[in-house]
Amino acid sequence: MTSAVVVGAGVLGACVGYHLARAGVRVVVVERARPACGTSGATFAADVTHLKTPYAYYLLNRQGSDEHRRLGEELDGPAWRHPAPLLQWAEGEEAQQALRAQALRVRGWGHDCRLVPPSLLRELAPAVDPAACRADEVVVNDSTAWFDAPGLVRTLLDAAVRLGGVETHFGAAVTGLVRAGGRIAGVVAGERSWDADVVVNCAGPGADRIAALAGVRLPLRRVPGLVTESEPLPGRPLTAIVAAPGIDLRPTRGGGVLALSWDVDARLNGSVDGLPQELHRRARVVVPGLARTRIEDARIGVRPVPSDGLPLVGEAAGAPGLYHLVSHSAVTLAPVLGRLAAQEIGTGRPAPELAAYRPDRAVDGDVHDANLRAMNRRAVNGRRPHPQDPQDPQAEL
Ligand SMILES: Cc1cc2nc3c(=O)[nH]c(=O)nc-3n(C[C@H](O)[C@H](O)[C@H](O)COP(=O)(O)OP(=O)(O)OC[C@H]3O[C@@H](n4cnc5c(N)ncnc54)[C@H](O)[C@@H]3O)c2cc1C
Fold first, then answer.
1. Which H or E run contains 162?
2. How far is the CA of 205 from the centre of ligand 1 (A)?
3. Listing from the earlier edge strand, what are the strands of the sheet with 322-326?
């Protein structure tokens, strides 16, 4: 295989484009707006390996997490990867037991995590108010990180272009596919078209629409999420990623705090009125210094979620030449999925690690992600119908 068109310049498009270029494949990246303008620009972007089941999928995420470091070494330092411990606690007996069971399960799988008394919060995250934690124990995931996803996209696209043989076309929305000899053999974007041996569908929450152009149905849902970014914290910065009841927090590059709440996301139904303020209020309970900050930015990203929560990777029956690369938690997974996908596209040899994620698999209805399961339960309990399908999947506030 000597040429590929990659549709979409988010984390997955950038990773697969970089690895294809490294393998000597001629690559054209076609992006409808600009790099990282989709979900990769409006994401919480923490290492979420500890949430994943079954074991094989947990391992794939761990490999993704490790490969951020390896990719960084290859590219003179992973400037996009920010190491920080991830602290979790729960509220109520049942939730605490579930969290403990999850921690023990992943620890049994070799995950670097421990259970500590809440008094250690002072040392682990001085910006956090220990009184916000009413649990008897805190789970500390020590080898985690949060990622500057747009930084990763920029770094990889620049590196791919430097390798040579790579063209990028921004502001070009793919509206059709080229067919030749019973295969998908290129893309059409308005007046322009690009031919290639393989088209790689990395359109994130729009991937099912690209697939539909070839008559393929991808089992994909769009699950919106809201993140707010605060002004820099006065005083002590936040030094950990925090998953507290009803609110997740992490540091930002500018010294502020990024907030996300699955409870709040379950209430996103078109109107966002008051929801950024609700996020900021919840965040202040855990990090009191936020009371002296304002919300600097609020964004809605749309999670591309395959029905069972697992990635969709490879060609689907009936449309050879169109290779899909779509996943939830793709910031964690991008380095490993991008590398493996490029390897099998380049060599034509299937990667055994990807066998469980083919787009034609039977989807069993189970959802392999603790957060997504919890959100589904809340939706079933009557807050809103789920999944949600906003009119504009890349809507911004
Ligand atoms: C609120 C929130 C929190 C999250 N938290 C985490 C987390 O903590 N950890 C984690 O690992 N993941 C997390 N995720 C998920 C993660 O951000 C996504 O899985 C990932 O960003 C998807 O990347 P992508 O490259 O597949 O898609 P995108 O970043 O959306 O890129 C797709 C690109 O394709 C382009 N495109 C679409 N259609 C076309 C077309 N027709 N023609 C040309 N271009 C097109 C778009 O403009 C876009 O730039 C979160 C997501 C959200 C929304």
1. helix 149-163
2. 7
3. 166-170, 26-31, 3-7, 198-201, 322-326, 312-315
- Percent helix, strand and coil across the chain, each rounded to 5? 35, 25, 40
Task: Determine the pLDDT at residue 394.
Answer: 34
Q: Which pair of tokens denotes residue 364?
A: 């069993």
For the chain, the domain total comes to 2
Mean per-residue pLDDT, 146-155: 97
CB 200 less than 6 A from any atom of ligand 1 = no
* Prediction pTM value: 0.94
CA distances from residue 206 to 201, 321, 389 in whole angstroms, order as listed = 9, 18, 11
Tokens of 27: 């690559």
Residue closest by Cα to atom 5 of ligand 1: 44
CA distances from 182 to 217, 315, 346 (A): 18, 14, 20
Residue 389 has which token pair?
Answer: 């399908």
229 and 295 assigned to the same domain: yes
pLDDT for 165 equals: 87
- Domain housing 300: 82-145+222-305
Residue 231 gets which letter from DSSP? Answer: P
Q: Is 94 helix (H, G, I), strand (E, B) or coil?
A: helix
**60's tokens:** 């794939």
Which of 337, 352, 330, 362 is closest to 219 using CA atoms?
A: 362
Instruction: Determine if ligand 1 sits within 6 Å of the CB of residue 8.
Output: yes
